[in-house]
Every structure is written in C-alpha cells, then in structure tokens.
C-alpha cells in the first residue's frame, strides 16, 4: 500500500491502528491456487486464528476459501461471516468432549488428534465422519513455539500409534474420512515438507474411502527485503506430481487441502503507531510509541522481526533507534534499527502485521485495543472500532462496599 494512504488512515484515529490490504490477500490466495493448478480437487481453508476479524473472514469466503478453526467461537464467527459449515474444519487441541460435540452438531468437519478422544467420540457418534491429525515426528518451523510436528509436541497422534487408530476404528465402526498434519510455521526447506508429505501418504494408504488429505500449512513469508521465503511454486510442482501419483495408487481422486494463515495475511498487514517521545540515554536513542506488547507481542514472544519505517519522514536522514512501547515492562519492538529521523508525533509503520498480531492483543495495563481497517477496492473500511473504557468495563462487576460490616 502507498505510505501516504497509510498515514492518512493513521491520522483519522486517536490511537494505533491495524490496516489490511485486501488486494494483497487476494494476490496470495491466487498464488497458492495457481501453484497447485495441476490438482483437480484443491481445497484452501484459511487458518483464521491468524486474523479472525469477521470482515476478513467474509473476504475469504467471497474468494471461495474454506475455514480452519481451533475453537467453537471461531466456528461460530465463521458461520456468521457466511461460511457453509461443510467448508469448515475444526482442529482443536485439549478441548472438552462437549465442545467437540457442539461443533459436530453444526455440521462442521471434525479433526481429532488424541487417541482417547477419538475412541470416546467414535463410540458415541460412529455415524459422524472424522479426520485424524497425525504427528509425523518432523522438526520444522522457525521457532520452538511454532514447531508442532516433532516427537515431543502435544499436537497430533504419533505415526507409531497408527495401529491403535485402526483398532479404534474397527471397534467403534466409525469412519475416517481425512488425514491431516501440520509440522510447524515458517518452513524454509520444501524438502522437509515433502518428507513429511510422504509420511502422510503412507498413513493415508491405511484407510479406505478417504475424502481428503490435509497438509496444514507453515509456509514462510519474507520479513525483510532479502529474506528467504517458501518457494510455493516449486512446492506446488513437486507435491502436485506426488499427490496425483498417490491418487492413482489409492484408486480414487480425493481432495488436497491446505490451511494457510500467515501466508495469506501476514504481508497484507500494517501496524501504525505514533511516537510519544524521544529519549536519549548514554548509549541508546529510544523512540517511545503509543503502543506496546499489549497490541503487538510477537517481537517479545517469538523474537520476530518486523520492519519499522517512519512514514512521516520517509526521506529523512537515517539514525539508529530502539523502538519501545508504553507498557510498564520491557516491550522492545526493535533494537538499534536504522530508521529515518524520528520526531515526536511521527507515525511509525510496522510491516508483516497481518498474522498473529491483533489476534494476540490484550488489555494489559488496562490499555484499549486498537481499531482495524481493511483497504478494499481503493477505499478504507473500518472493520473494528477502537475500544473504549466502557468496552473494558462491560463485563466487570463493581461490588457495593459502602455498607459497613460489623465484626463481633
């Protein structure tokens, strides 16, 4: 997006604001579709935990996407956004049987990653087809917190436990209609992905009458100008050939599914925040902004890198700044970054702010969460109002302490 447009949007809000470029989201969606154009039955299911605003979900639905969800609330929001429940997959971890049953009653595809839960659900509801999430024991991902397919992960059923799955299926007479895996996020080497794919193909051959194979996602997007990203086109070429060969061996043409989240929305997002003050110490120049890890926690939680640019003075002389927030803890967005000279009141733009940014925000320090804006068809649409103090207090209850209590 053009920086003058972003600055104009920022100037209309009192506090920080997230802006999402709908055209960029569409571009990434089409890029993935084109990479796998050789697959007859391709299903793209947006992983909405990345960015779950109902208007973003509506945009995904309008493009023909399905939905990947991890909570009943995400399912409910997805349905309100217009998704057909049949195009939604529910892949929870550690939720109650009651929640799984409530989601199943809505007609959503259930994906189970626990032997005990699989047996319980199959015993009670053998008529409901279920997908199984496999842990391929492949270490992949850019951070230990987002690598979810290794042997010690809490996610998925171990490939070594396939005989147990088969026993449960035989005993309950339930039907397995899909197999699923997700190794982690920010996968650089497509050979790692293809290795895990072979494990999933081997697993799928053990089950009859499957409707789909789901490869999750984890595609890496670039965070800097020269950063490495997953070569989607090369992956598409290689995995398409292998998937089509699998279908021939399997004897049926089944669906190939992906669940991209970050890949679709990360680069489309910008976080805009205003500089409150400049603070010079003996060795550091701090740019202190009207935000903190209550709005953008990824740099502190994952050590993630977000490019920061001063869009109020884009051609200014570059200096080194450490950009920090207003939270009463250490909340450093970037240390010793080379940024065009910053003055109080300037707008700083954080790139790659579309995925796992607003969705991980909070009211820590009783701060208000920011507004969200979607740039769509050359127009800025507010898709979430900035919070107010009334929003924070809406579910809190103040007890009446005016009455004195006598102590005998």
Number of helices: 12
CATH superfamily of the largest domain: Alanine racemase
In helices, the fraction of residues equals 25-40%
Low-confidence spans: 140-150
Q: Calculate Rg over CA atoms.
A: 24 Å
- The chain-level mean pLDDT equals 93
The name of the CATH topology of the largest domain is TIM Barrel
The major pleated sheet works out as: 9 strands, mixed
CATH class of the largest domain: Alpha Beta
Order of helices and strands: HEHEHEHEHEHEEHEHEHEHEEHEEEEEEH
As for the number of domains, it is 2
CATH-derived architecture of the largest domain: Alpha-Beta Barrel
Roughly what fraction of the amino acids lie in strands?
Answer: 15-25%
Spatial gap, N to C terminus: 70 Å
Shape: globular
Computed structural class: alpha/beta
Compute the number of strand runs. Answer: 18
What does this structure look like?
With 408 residues, this protein is an alpha/beta fold. The chain folds into two domains: 22-265, TIM Barrel (Alpha-Beta Barrel), CATH 3.20.20; 269-353 and 370-387, Lyase, Ornithine Decarboxylase, Chain A, domain 1, CATH 2.40.37. It has twelve helices and 18 strands. The protein has helices spanning 3-11, 22-35, 54-62, 72-80, 97-104, 115-124, 162-172, 190-204, 232-250, 262-265, 298-301, 389-393; strands at residues 17-21, 42-47, 66-69, 88-90, 109-112, 130-135, 157-158, 176-180, 212-214, 255-258, 269-280, 285-289, 308-310, 318-324, 332-340, 347-350, 371-375, 380-384. The strands form two sheets. Strands 1, 11, 12, 13, 14, 15, 16, 17 and 18 form a nine-stranded mixed beta sheet that branches. An eight-stranded parallel barrel has the order 2-3-4-5-6-8-9-10, surrounded by six helices. A hairpin with a 4-residue loop joins β17 (371-375) and β18 (380-384).
């Amino acid at each position: 997006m053009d920086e003058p447009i972003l600055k104009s949007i920022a100037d209309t809000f009192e506090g920080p604001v997230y802006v999402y470029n709908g055209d960029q989201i569409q571009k990434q969606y089409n890029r993935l579709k084109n990479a796998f154009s050789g697959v007859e039955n391709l299903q793209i299911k947006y992983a909405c935990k990345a960015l779950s605003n109902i208007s973003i979900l509506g945009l995904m639905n309008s493009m023909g996407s399905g939905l990947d969800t991890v909570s009943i609330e995400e399912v409910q929001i997805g349905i309100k956004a217009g998704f057909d429940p049949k195009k939604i997959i529910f892949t929870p971890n550690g939720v109650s049987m009651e929640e799984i049953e409530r989601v199943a009653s809505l007609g959503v595809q259930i994906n189970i990653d626990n032997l005990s839960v699989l047996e319980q659900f199959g015993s009670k509801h053998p008529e409901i087809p279920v997908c199984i999430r496999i842990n391929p024991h492949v270490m992949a991902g850019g951070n230990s917190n987002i690598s979810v397919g290794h042997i010690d992960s809490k996610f998925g059923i171990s490939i070594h436990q396939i005989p147990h799955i088969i026993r449960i299926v035989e005993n309950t007479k339930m039907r397995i209609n899909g197999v699923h895996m997700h190794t982690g996020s920010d996968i650089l080497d497509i050979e790692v992905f293809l290795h895990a794919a072979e494990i999933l193909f081997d697993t799928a051959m053990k089950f009859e009458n499957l409707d789909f194979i789901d490869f999750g996602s984890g595609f890496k997007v670039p965070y800097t100008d020269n950063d490495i990203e997953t070569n989607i086109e090369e992956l598409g070429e290689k995995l398409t050939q292998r998937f089509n060969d699998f279908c021939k061996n399997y004897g049926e043409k089944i669906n190939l599914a992906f669940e991209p989240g970050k890949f679709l929305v990360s680069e489309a997002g910008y976080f805009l925040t205003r500089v409150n003050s400049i603070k010079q110490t003996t060795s550091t120049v701090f740019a202190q902004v009207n935000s903190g890890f209550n709005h953008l926690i990824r740099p502190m939680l994952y050590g993630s890198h977000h490019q920061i640019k001063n869009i109020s003075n884009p051609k200014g002389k570059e200096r080194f700044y450490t950009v920090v927030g207003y939270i009463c803890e250490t909340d450093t967005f970037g240390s010793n970054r080379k940024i065009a000279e910053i003055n109080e009141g300037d707008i700083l733009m954080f790139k790659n702010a579309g995925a796992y940014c607003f969705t991980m925000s909070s009211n820590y320090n009783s701060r208000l969460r920011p507004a969200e804006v979607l740039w769509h068809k050359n127009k800025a649409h507010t898709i979430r109002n900035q919070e107010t103090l009334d929003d924070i207090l809406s579910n809190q209850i103040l007890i009446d302490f005016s009455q004195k209590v006598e102590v005998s």
